[in-house]
Hints:
Layout: E1 9-14, E2 17-21, H1 25-36, E3 44-46, E4 49-51
Antiparallel strand pairs: 1-2, 3-4
Amino acid sequence: MRMGGLVPKAYPVEDDKILFVSVGSMETLKVRDFVFQQPECVSFEWNQQKSYPPKPAATPKKNGAGSKKNKKKSSSKTDL
């Protein structure tokens, strides 16, 4: 964060919580964006408002070979 021009102070509050102290609201939004990029992040709270990291976009399911509707039973018959 320091490389991006942010200099918030971080204080461990509990085992799973960190308190960031910053100067302005724009800096707080940048800190929030940085925190959301961390895989360990579960939530972010600012002014008693909790927000959560964005969920990754779901990949659409294909209606192809794996679909039950399109699956046909095939039988093999061997004539001798």
